Amino acid sequence: MFMQGKRGLIIGVANNKSIAYGIAEAIKAQGGEFALTFLNDQLEKRVRPIAEEFGCKFVYKLDVGNPDEIVAVKEAIARDFGKIDFVVHAVAYAPKEALDGRFVDTTKEAFNIALQTSVFSLIEVVQKLLPVLEKNASILTLTYLGAVAVVPHYNVMGVAKAALEASVRYLAADLGPQGIRVNAISAGPIRTLAASGIGDFKMIMKWNEANAPLRNNVTIEQVGNAAAYLISDLASGVTGEIHYVDAGYNITGMGAVEEIDGKAVLVWDRIQNS
Ligand SMILES: NC(=O)c1ccc[n+]([C@@H]2O[C@H](COP(=O)([O-])OP(=O)(O)OC[C@H]3O[C@@H](n4cnc5c(N)ncnc54)[C@H](O)[C@@H]3O)[C@@H](O)[C@H]2O)c1
Predict the structure, then answer these.
(1) Alpha-carbon gap, residue 116 to 94, rounded angstroms
(2) Which atom of ligand 1 is the closest one to the Cα of 190?
(3) Distance, CA 12 to ligand 1 centroid (Å)?
(4) Rg (the chain; Cα; Å)
(5) Which of 79, 162, 195, 217 has the fewest CB atoms nearer than 10 Å to its CB?
(6) 77: Cβ below 6 Å to ligand 1?
(7) Which pairs count as long-range contacts for 202-210, CB under 8 Å and 24+ apart, including other chains?
(8) Which position among 21, 60, 93, 154 bears the catalytic label?
(9) pTM
């Protein structure tokens, strides 16, 4: 149980399909404890039963766009835990209309919302929680391949994830001298509430499944297990890292091909035609 004695905060559980739920499950299985947060009243109804399922004693209201709420969470952590060993930031948002059609049509408003909610929130959460972080604490966020390559409809969220990945490196450099590590997992596509806002998401999943070396889509359990490792002392030598958990999709340079009757056939075509 490599998370025994570790206590932290997990931001981003919306329901039991959330990547943050898979991370919570893996941390719990390894003996870790944590507080959860909920964004609004509607989500509170979903998050409270999940907190009970995991035996979490503490659940806090947190809209990362509201600095006062981040400070209130810091104070609640100081009261309930003293200090914590890890923070999971599994938060992203962009207006739905920005996640369809052409990137060139992105509005300034959508850009600002996406970058503030999905990127600045990590910086501000770390800033404000620093006084309650243990020496050797670990911070983890979630990113996606759209940061480094074009994925249809991911648009402004790709720009946000690129900024998030750069922020991971700058935070890791700033906080490394005090032993605090900052990493990101770049997860393959998973059907969640946030993902349902992305245009043609079903096709993205099918494409990934057909072309990833492992020929499947990853699960929140797989992301959760990798997250538990990165958060734990097992990864004490790892910081500023973008760790792919995507069935290997990111290493591919062309569509997967099979030989059928002496002809090269795209796996995607075979799946489409079967
Ligand atoms: N699902 C995927 O395919 C995929 C792939 C790679 C990375 N990710 C990333 O994983 C992270 C978690 O997303 P998910 O897919 O589990 O979806 P999800 O909808 O389950 O989780 C997103 C969370 O963000 C929270 N959130 C949004 N705005 C917030 C705000 N202002 N304050 C506080 N919380 C806020 C929501 O309440 C929700 O809990 C995101 O950063 C997402 O970009 C997802």
Answers:
(1) 10
(2) 3
(3) 6
(4) 19
(5) 79
(6) no
(7) 203/152, 204/151, 204/152, 204/153, 206/268, 206/271, 207/268, 208/246, 208/247, 208/249, 210/255, 210/256, 210/267, 210/268, 210/271
(8) 154
(9) 0.97
Between CA 85 and CA 201 the distance in angstroms is 35
Write the single-letter amino acid at 120.
F
Q: Are 64 and 121 in contact (CB under 8 A)?
A: yes
Separation of alpha carbons 87 and 140, rounded Å: 6
**Ligand 1 contacts CB of residue 210 (under 6 A):** no
The side-by-side arrangement of strands in the sheet containing 133-143 is: 59-61, 33-38, 7-11, 84-89, 133-143, 181-187, 242-245
CA distances from 148 to 60, 160, 168, 172, 270 (A): 34, 11, 14, 19, 28
Residue 128 is predicted with a pLDDT of 98
Question: Which tokens go with 192?
Answer: 């969640």
pLDDT confidence of residue 256: 87
C-alpha 193/C-alpha 187 separation (Å) is 15
> How confident is the model over 13-29, as pLDDT tens digits?
999 999 999 999 999 99
Residue type at 186 in one-letter notation: S
Tokens of 25: 């499950």
pLDDT digits (tens, 9 = 90+) for 200-238: 899 999 999 999 999 999 999 999 999 999 999 999 999
C-alpha 142 to ligand 1 mean position (Å): 8
Q: Which atom of ligand 1 is nearest to the CA of 195?
A: 1
